[in-house]
Structure formats: structure tokens, C-alpha cells
Amino acid sequence: MLEKIAVYPGTFDPVTLGHLDIVERAIPIFDRVIVAVAKDTGGKPTLFSIEERIQMLKDVTMNYPKTEVHGFSGLLITYVKEVNACTILRGLRAISDFEHEFQMASINKRLNSSVETLFMMTNESYFFLSSSSVKEIAALGCNLKGFVPELVEKQIKKKLF
Ligand code: ADP
After folding, report:
1. How far apart are CA 62 and CA 23, in angstroms?
2. Is CATH 3.30.428.70 correct for 5-160?
3. Can you give the pTM of this predicted structure?
């Protein structure tokens, strides 16, 4: 039988507990979950390089079954077909995520109708959590416990201070 592979794409600058919650919940649904870290960020500057973002994700998902972390560049839908995935996985937080996600999902459906986009509602504990808020909080010298894995907190502090 064909493997059910999900691609979970994002910038992951850096990975948060909200991201990991989505990966953990996807594992029982799919045969493989590929966390795909975007090399192209549309000109948006990142705190961490692509190599650093990938390495942090690899470290924090080391003990997850069926999970791989890779970088990708170019069109997401092309990458999804390259790795034989059937699903694009995205997390949804507030309603503010919706419009952009709806647009992306519609475009991807138009580009390749055999690939579905699946949205998972955020866990309520991570409703307000985003990589950018984590960076802002960190820059103010606050504790990141409950927002990011310990290893990531160390990396952010090393980068900022
Ligand atoms: P992008 O720049 O593509 O939005 P992100 O790294 O910000 O990349 O997010 C990757 C995915 O993870 C997106 O689908 C986003 O909605 C989701 N996500 C981000 N933060 C959370 C969270 N706290 N809970 C659930 N999903 C989240």
C-alpha cells in the first residue's frame, strides 16, 4: 500500500512547542511526517540560518518516530510531489491565520489537485505562541519556559546576548 506522507512546511525561526505539538499529533495519522524547513523566506530576514533551523528541529525531534527534517527551496507543491507526499499539514491558531492559509491552500489545490492541505487547530495552550513572539520575549530578557524546548531557549540566548 502507498505510504501516507505528510509535509509540514514552515520557517521555524525557531521551532516552538506549538510546532512540536502539531508534529506529535500528526504522527499517529501518517506513515511519515516530513518537517520541511523553508530556505526561501520571501526576503523576510530570519534570526537563525537555514542550517541552524534544521539542526534545532532535528535535535528536538530526535526521539520522534516516523519523523524527518529537511530543508526545501522553491515551490512547496513541487517539493511535496518530489517526496511523494499526499498532504500538506498546517497549524491554525487565531482567525488571523485563516485568510493567508485559505489563499495558500487554494493556490496549492489549483497547482496540484491530488494534494490536500490539512489544518490542525492549535492546542489551546499554544494559541498565542509564534516564533516572532518568542523572539520578542527573548530580546526583553524573559524566560522562555513553556514556549520553546530548553535547547532552543539556549540557542536564542546565545544568538541575542
Ligand atoms: P510560516 O512562515 O510558513 O507560517 P511558521 O514557522 O511560522 O512558518 O509556522 C509553520 C506552521 O506552524 C504554520 O502552519 C503555522 O500556522 C503553524 N504554527 C505556528 N505556531 C503554532 C502554534 N503555536 N500552534 C499551532 N501551529 C502553529
Report:
1. 12
2. no
3. 0.96
| Amino acid in position 52 | E
CA pair distance 146, 123, nearest whole angstrom: 13
Q: CA 158, CA 77: separation in Å to the nearest integer?
A: 35
Q: Whose CA is nearest to atom 26 of ligand 1?
A: 91
Instruction: Please state, in angstroms and as integers, the Cα–Cα distance from residue 91 to each residue in 1, 25, 66, 101, following that order.
Output: 27, 11, 19, 9
Q: What is the pLDDT of residues 68-110, one digit of tens each?
A: 999 999 999 999 999 999 999 999 998 778 999 999 999 999 9
Ligand 1 in reach of 10 Cβ (< 6 A): yes
What distance in angstroms lies between residue 113's CA and the mean position of ligand 1's atoms?
A: 23
End-to-end CA distance of the chain: 51
**Could you report the per-residue pLDDT of 100-143, keeping only the tens digit for each?**
999 999 999 999 999 999 999 999 999 999 999 999 999 999 99
pLDDT of residue 65: 98
Residue 1, SS3 per DSSP: coil
User: Does 12 contact ligand 1 (Cβ within 6 A)?
Assistant: yes
User: H or E segment at 62?
Assistant: none
Residue type, 147: F
